[in-house]
Amino acid sequence: MPELDVGIQSIIDGQGVPIAIVGMSIVFVALISIASFISVLPWLLAQLAKFVPETDHHAPSRPRGDDDSAAVAAAVAAFHAQRSGAGS
Amino acid sequence: MTVLTEFLGTTGFAMMTWGNLFMIVVGLIFITLAITKDYEPLLLLPIGFGAMVGNIPSIPGMALSVYDPGSVLAYLYFGVSQGIFPPLIFLGIGAMTDFSTMLSNPRLVLLGAAAQVGIFLTLMGALYLGFTPEEAGAIGIIGGADGPTAIFLSAKLAPHLIGAIAIAAYSYMALVPVIQPPVMKLLTTRKERLIRMPPPREVSKRERIFFPIIAFLVAALIAPGSLALVGMLMFGNLLKESGVTDRLADTARHAFIDIVTILLGFSVGASTQAQTFLTPQSLSIFGLGALSFAMATAGGILFCKFLNLFTTQKVNPLLGAAGVSAVPDSARVVQMVGLQEDPHNHLLMNAMAPNVAGVIGSAICAGILWSVMVG
Q1: Which residues from A are below 8 Å from B364, CB to CB?
Q2: S-S: B322 plus which of B49, B88, B159, B330, CB 3.0-4.6 Å?
Q3: Which chain B residues contact residue A42 at CB under 8 A?
Q4: What is the pLDDT of residues B220-236, one digit of tens each?
């Protein structure tokens, strides 16, 4: 780093101020665009839902088979425990 | 006897310099901070050990260090020097980030933009100190408080400064709980710190799926230089939110990002050879780095206060401090400072909105600087 380069003139020569102003402006434009999109997204999706209702075809299906058996077994065990006075 | 003498002349002890020794101690300090203080352990520990590895003096004629073509470490460092690892890290970050709080309160996105002022003020500071515009751009990105982004841009604009910039960025990220609170308290009144924020609304699955796609298109079209970072971030997030690629998302946010973090941290550490690292430039970079974090914090807070002049529903200005993209550290600091004033004022969820917006903002800034400097 040559000593002569240190100073305000280096900022001017390196176009520091224009880069900062343009850079911040572009960041704001980009994030304001994203924020605007986020703001209208619920409305857009509400319109979309009129034609394509939101369904979750990947939702886990209702437990069946063994799971049901386990639930029934647990219920029977609880009932039996209550009848035999094992509960409180 | 001659063989033994020659061998002893090639040992690390014989060729060790004070600079190497100093850097090994620095590496040990990093490891100690990671283990005893939990300061960014996933990064400081690999970087610290890498610094020790990188400062064992090389034997002339043998390819050992990251700077010796053909060495094992040089191949590992390739991912850093070519800017490959940062976008891969972003893939993992995307797969673990929940943008719901940001989607529920889009106004807070602007705080993530305002905090990027730290990048451009640091750039001017670096120019003032005599760095070239390319070097200044790479140093400025430290103000984004995002390690991978800093490494990515350094690799493109000032590869010779990667080590110093990466160490500065990660060191100050670890020091966010120390740097930010004084600035936050200085720039806000107690009344402002007591402002309560409404809880985030519930966000639909469709919103969460549409967001990464549109956000990518907007960001990449405005600043194509951010393509790799924002693209991988949003791709990772889509893997998570789509609900049909759970295995891929799971890999991206666990094993994948862990592997890349190990390689990135270790090879960045190994690049901190005293001969290239201990320079006046590095000291200037560390000084500018500390200032950049403070300026980014101040930028977010002051912009939030400015917004409050025009809105009826006031935003707690502490949230502005979360605009820097140190995720989730800045959001945690906001929560901590908020709780100090009111033990029932939980700001963490709201702070995550500007925090993740800051990640997008700093990636866009990197794209802008890259475009401007090479254009």
Answers
A1: 26-27, 30-31
A2: B330
A3: 204, 207
A4: 999 999 999 999 999 99
User: Scanning every residue of chain B, which has its alpha carbon at the shortest distance from the alpha carbon of A53?
Assistant: B206
Place of tokens 């100093």: B22
Could you report the predicted ipTM of this complex, rounded to two decimals?
0.91
- Residue A88 located in a structural domain: no
* Residue B196 DSSP SS3: coil
Question: Which position has the token pair 């850097």?
Answer: B23
pLDDT score for B120: 96
Q: How far apart are the C-alpha atoms of B140 and B7, rounded to whole Å?
A: 45
Check if A46 contacts B (Cβ < 8 Å). no
- Alpha-carbon distance of B286 to B164, in angstroms, equals 8
Contact list in B for residue A16 (CB cut-off 8 A) is: 123-124, 127-128, 133, 136
Q: Residue A29: inside a domain, yes or no?
A: yes
Pairwise CA distance, residues B32 & B325, whole Å: 25
B147-176 burial, b if ≥16 CB within 10 A, otherwise e? bbbbbbbbbbbbbebbbbbbbbbbbbbbbb
Contact B305, B136 (CB under 8 A): no
Tokens of A2: 């040559």
Interchain CB contact of A37 with B (< 8 Å): yes
Of B88 and B61, the structure prediction assigns the larger pLDDT to B88
Task: For chains A and B, count residue pairs whose Cβ atoms are closer than 8 Å.
Answer: 133
H or E segment and range at residue B14: helix B12-15
pLDDT tens track for A2-50? 444 678 889 999 899 999 999 999 999 999 999 999 999 999 999 999 9
Residue range B87-112, pLDDT digits in tens: 999 999 999 999 999 999 999 999 99
User: Rounded distance, CA B300 to CA B229, Å?
Assistant: 22
Signed CA dihedral, B131, B136, B140, B141: sign only: negative
CB contact under 8 A, B204 and A45: yes
Peptide linkage before B343 cis (omega within 30 of 0) = no
pLDDT in the model for residue B214: 96
Question: What value does the mean pLDDT take over residues B5-31?
Answer: 90
* Of residues B102, B116, B211, nearest to A27 (C-beta): B116
The parent domain of residue A45 ranges over 3-83
Number of domains in chain A: 1
Non-local CB neighbours of B114 within 8 Å, separated by 6+ positions: B299, B300, B302, B303, B304, B320, B323
Pair A58, B243: CB distance under 8 Å: yes
Per DSSP, the three-state class of B145 is coil
Contact B113 A27 (CB under 8 A): yes
Q: What is d(CA B242, CA B175) in angstroms, rounded to the nearest whole number?
A: 35
Q: What's the whole-number average pLDDT of chain B?
A: 93
The first and second tokens of residue B60, run together, are 């002339």
